[in-house]
Amino acid sequence: MINRKKAGALLLVLSLTAGLTACGGSEKGTADQSTENAENGERGTVEISIGRQTTANPKFPEGDSYEDNAYIRMVEEELDVDISDAFEADSGDDYNRQVSLALSAGSLPDMMKVATKDELTELYENELIADLTDVYNNYASDYIKSIYDSFGGRALEDVTYDGKIMALPATSSDAGPGMFWVRSDWAEEMGLKVDEDGDRCVTLDEVKNIAQAFIDADLENTGNVVGMTFDSRMTTNTSDTPFMMNAIMYAMGAYPRHWYQNEENELTYGSVTDEMKEAVALIRDWYEEGIVDPQVGTRTWDDITALVTKGQCGIIFGSWHTPDWLLNNVYALDNEAEFEPYVLVDENGKVNCTHYKATGEYLVVSAEFEYPEIAIEILNLIYDDMVNSDELLEKYPEVNTYLNTGVDGTARPFNMEVKSNTYLLDEYAQLKAALEGTGKKEDISTAEERSNYDAIMAYREGNEDVTGWCKIHSRCKGVDLLTYLVDKDLYNWISPIYPETTTTMETNWSNLQTLEVESLIKIITGASDVDTGFEEFRTAWYDQGGEMILKEIEEQIAE
Amino acid sequence: MLDTKSKSAKIRNLVIYCIVIFLGLICLLPLVNILAISMSGSAAVTANKVGLTPVDFTMTAYRRILEDQQFWRSFGISVVRVVLTLVLNLVLIIPLAYVMTRSKREFRARNIYMNLLIFAMLFNGGMIPTYIVVKELHLLNTIWALILPGAVPVFSVILLMNFFYGVPKALEEAAIVDGASQLQVLIKIMVPCAKPAIATVSLFSIVGSWNDFLGGLIYMQKVKDYPIMTYIQSLSIDLQELVNSSMNSAALENIAELSNKNLNAAKIVVAVIPLLLIYPFLQRYLISGIVMGSVKE
Q1: Domain B70-294 sits in CATH 3.60.150.10
Q2: Fewer CB within 10 A of the end CB, N or C, for chain B?
Q3: Which tens digit of pLDDT belongs to each residue from B153-187?
Q4: What is the pLDDT of residue A74?
Q5: Using one digit for the tens of pLDDT, what is the confidence trace for A30-74?
Q6: For residues A144 and A345, is the Cβ–Cβ distance under 8 A?
Q7: CA pair distance A307, A230, nearest whole angstrom
């Protein structure tokens, strides 16, 4: 896995850094003076250097840039600071490389985001980052605190080392299960009832029947309809990633790629359970019957997207927001296309779903930075005041414009998601009220949902714009389904354990992952027998480090 | 030579032509495909419908490039970089190659220098040490960070040395008898003789510095300073990776809007044009240059 490599590189880099930071200390010679200023209650204009993640499509209005845009100008004005970028790089490998390089050169920016818990731990152990406990407690607004608290402690615990809060975590709210998006225009044309009883839940048998019906009908005359297909990685460690088998497996009580305590309270790895074996056997049967794509295991994302767009595939597994950025291609090519989401239920009629890891990335403040409270003040400003205070947006109309035109969040000093665990449903409730006339557009709290409202209304009036189509699908169908699941109490939540990388994981994990994917593909495509094939995989998995890793994670939990 | 009249020779030629044409097509078709994609509607591209001719012909992608300021900024940076790199490379490697071809009697330390060069060609400092050196020299975020680390391409030096060896000794001796200094020998005799080789190393230098993207990723810390290839690389998106990293739906939307392959294809086309313009002028030298430089007397 990539993360393994990164952590390894970081380790190396940090050992270099230890020597270099010692030499670099003298650069901060002016620190004493500024402390005096702080004691007088005047800190003057503070210069902040940040490490910035960028995106390929920031959508800046002309003339604006990462270092000089509406958000930065607002923060600089409100907090009397001067923000400059120590480095910029696209999120992902490019950014992580810049972080490693900055560390190796002994020049940590004052604030930056790190992508993994492992990096955070390294930084903490090398005493390179500031303890934020006091500033968080004293400066964070009640609203911000309530957001973190909405995760029931899962968010802040993750960044607490020896009782000290060492980073501000980005939150990662549960996005619900991977849905089962069906071409409803096809179903209608064929007179096919996807969901007889109208409860928006379907069973595995029903899914199979729909796929078979689509294959038989071939409404777009493509000559080669694929019932359903999956990404070559097959499964993933989030509940709702598109093109994954997770939803099917969840419905059979298997949670591939997740660590969790099973009913006997034993730590389990979901991919090696008996339920997993049954789930794999089922998909193998489907494969033999031609329901599952004959080329499964070799399809890339682009291939699958192409299949769906060309009308060769009418069933897609994916999260509520899949229509916004993937199914939109289908509509662009075929204005008649419609999708309807359903969820797969297990034999008890429940929707099994795994909680996300509550935190995503981490914002850290350099140990040498004089005013760590500024990080919290920025957090308050962007993620509380900007959301909740109309006066602020009136004072900075250009920020409002940014929000309305969808300028990317990377324009902010640090771009994290800081939203309550239920924000998705809360915001949708406001949108729904406005759409149904029981509420007003002005009562919708976020700019994003307000522009969604406009797009949906315009589409309903017949402008046929793709944005309206997308938002109707993602919000009025996707999130609506999530709301329905909560209202009807249909969820069965699993709380996985998201361990830190253990020593055996460092050396063996990528092999184990390869073993897992290869074994799955072999079994599904019939290259090896279900019983012997799965037992071989399970034995190999335990032998090649799985058993050690389970022990190591148990020790982690015990700590 | 082959007897073109005999039947077996004709068949043989036909087979050879077929193979060569086939190989040529392998190189050419991806380019044609990119060109076709750049002129197609984005939905058709997503549906994998575009082959060698555009589907839903449109020039919107090119129109959007014209509006993309960063693209032109990066384009300009790359042009400056290529020119500076070329000049610096030639200024450094021509004299270097010349002195390295002097006999041991004229240049006693020659072998030491040669070993140093070869050592530097085979081993390098690695990414992080090089980064630290560049940073400590305060070259980060300047165009020199892209130029100086590659100022002496050893491979080109060796190529040029082999070419100088090939220049008849008598020419040089005649010049010296006529009273020419070493510098005059180099400029008046060697350089004009070595035109093909110099064209070759120039081409290497131009293509290499135009196409390099990693240097920009490492040494340029601001997106606005990216050279063109780094900028284009930052636009090529692996949606699959991004979906797996913690991205919210709004960010995904912005990204997916761009994964707009026809726009990226158009950017690639535009970025390749300068090289396509240079190749025809230098290519004839390229072929003769490598061949002549490869044999020494």
Answers
A1: no
A2: N
A3: 999 999 999 889 888 888 888 999 999 998 999 99
A4: 94
A5: 444 444 444 445 678 999 999 999 887 788 888 888 999 999 999
A6: no
A7: 11
Task: Classify residue A555 as exposed, middle or buried by CB count within 10 Å of its CB (0-12, 13-18, 19+).
Answer: exposed
Distance, in Å, from the CA atom of A256 to the CA atom of B47, rounded to the nearest integer, reads 31
Fold entry, domain A179-347+496-558: D-Maltodextrin-Binding Protein; domain 2 (3.40.190)
C-alpha distances (whole Å) from A395 to each of A204, A375, A390, A398, B233 are 54, 22, 9, 9, 38
Q: What integer pLDDT is reported at residue A40 of this predicted model?
A: 46
pLDDT tens digits along B40-57 = 887 778 777 888 888 888
Chain A CB contacts of B44 under 8 Å are 333
Of B69, B135, B254, the CB nearest to A105: B135
Nearest to B37 by CA among B19, B21, B49, B24: B49
Residue of A nearest to B45 (CA): A306
**A228 within 8 A of A293, measured Cβ to Cβ:** yes
């601001």: which residue's tokens?
A: B222
Please judge whether A241 and B223 are an interchain contact, meaning their C-beta atoms are less than 8 angstroms apart.
no
Percentage of chain B beyond pLDDT 70 is 89
Rg, C-alpha atoms of chain B:
25
Residue range A2-173+359-411, CATH number: 3.40.190.10
Burial class for A40, CB neighbours closer than 10 Å (0-12, 13-18, 19+): exposed
Q: Which chain B residue has its CA at the smallest distance from A24's CA? A: B136
Structure tokens at B18: 């077929």
User: What single-letter amino acid sits at A514?
Assistant: T
Q: Which residue has the tokens 């270097």?
A: B96
Q: Does the predicted interface ipTM exceed a cut of 0.85?
A: no
DSSP code string of A481-534: HHHHHHHTT-EEEE--B-PPPPHHHHHHHHHHHHHHHHHHHHHHTTSS-HHHHH
Please count the other Cβ atoms lying within 10 Å of the Cβ belonging to residue B229.
Answer: 21
Residue A326 has pLDDT above 90, yes or no: no
pLDDT value of position A542: 95
CB neighbours of residue A290 within 10 Å: 13
Domain range summary for chain B, segments of one domain joined by +: 1-58, 70-294
Query: Mean pLDDT score of chain A, rounded to an integer?
Result: 87
